[in-house]
User: Which sequence fits this backbone?
């Protein structure tokens, strides 16, 4: 299978945008030499939720429903339900193919099938970090939890699958996108959950913090329950790659332990590829498949329970 996308090769397209936008070197480059494109699929800045676009209203409405419904009790219930892993058995690659039908409504930058995004991210990061094979595989699997949108996985609504994530069980930080809608979340008024620490202790470690439910936490549970040998940095990337309040705004650092602090740099590196590889790219799936199959064999058992 070849995914054909109707534009230039990634590098060329990026180079052209750099010239057109006359960006300074320091703004357009970072760790590993990855060059940021300056506009998304729709010709707007990345993560520009204010942009005048037909999608804007949909995205805002998405966060309104998300923020009202992601409560501590809801997350607890979902974690208990989904960590049973009693729905289906399939390999990582089979899951990648399954995701082909899924489009993420919360994402203002992307309207293409997910498998393209997975391979764009993985191939971009592989180019800049050729020796970190765990990072390539992490990129490939980071969004597989979006299968939650499909009927065999319970067909969860978009607000319970995608979008930015944040801790529940303590105060919602003001840096979270569309923070104003939390006022209608029952936890917002609950004194057990609405203080800086809430149910947590200082430096308790992010692993002990309940995150709003979605594809990130689900894929993290899948990797853990199936005893993946990915390093802790890879697992951290999977669980926190949508946690923008932390890796963009620096909120909730008081809940991190030493290991989290060490791994955070990988989440930040990864995030740039996750975001900026969402461009028109051409990936020859059959050509790269054997490489990723070898990584799957190395870091995951043959069949996974989901
Ligand atoms: Fe994601
Ligand atoms: Fe992603």
Assistant:
């Amino acid at each position: 299978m070849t995914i054909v996308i109707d534009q230039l090769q990634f590098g060329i397209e990026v180079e052209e945008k750099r010239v057109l936008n006359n960006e300074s070197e320091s703004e357009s480059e970072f760790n590993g030499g990855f060059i940021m494109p300056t506009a998304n699929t729709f010709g707007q800045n990345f993560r520009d939720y204010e942009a005048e676009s037909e999608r804007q209203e949909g995205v805002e409405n998405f966060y309104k429903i998300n923020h009202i419904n992601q409560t501590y009790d809801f997350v607890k219930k979902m974690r208990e339900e989904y960590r049973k892993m009693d729905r289906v058995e399939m390999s990582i690659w089979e899951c990648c193919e399954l995701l082909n039908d899924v489009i993420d409504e919360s994402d203002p930058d992307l309207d293409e099938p997910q498998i393209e995004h997975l391979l764009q991210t993985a191939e971009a990061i592989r180019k800049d970090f050729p020796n970190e094979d765990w990072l390539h595989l992490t990129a490939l699997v980071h969004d597989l939890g979006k299968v939650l949108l499909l009927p065999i996985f319970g067909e969860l609504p978009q607000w319970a699958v995608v979008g930015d994530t944040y801790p529940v069980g303590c105060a919602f930080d003001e840096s979270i996108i569309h923070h104003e809608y939390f006022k209608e979340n029952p936890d917002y008024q609950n004194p057990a959950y609405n203080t800086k620490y809430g149910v947590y202790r200082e430096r308790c470690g992010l692993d002990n913090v309940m995150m709003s439910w979605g594809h990130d936490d689900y894929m993290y549970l899948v990797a853990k329950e199936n005893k993946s040998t990915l390093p802790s940095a890879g697992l951290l990337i999977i669980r926190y790659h949508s946690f923008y309040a932390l890796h963009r705004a620096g909120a909730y650092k008081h809940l991190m332990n030493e290991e989290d602090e060490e791994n955070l740099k990988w989440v930040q590196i990864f995030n740039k590829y996750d975001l900026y590889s969402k461009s028109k790219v051409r990936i020859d799936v059959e050509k790269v498949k054997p490489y990723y199959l070898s990584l799957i064999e190395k870091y995951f058992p043959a069949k996974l329970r989901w």
Notes: Residues 258-276 form the longest helix (19 residues).
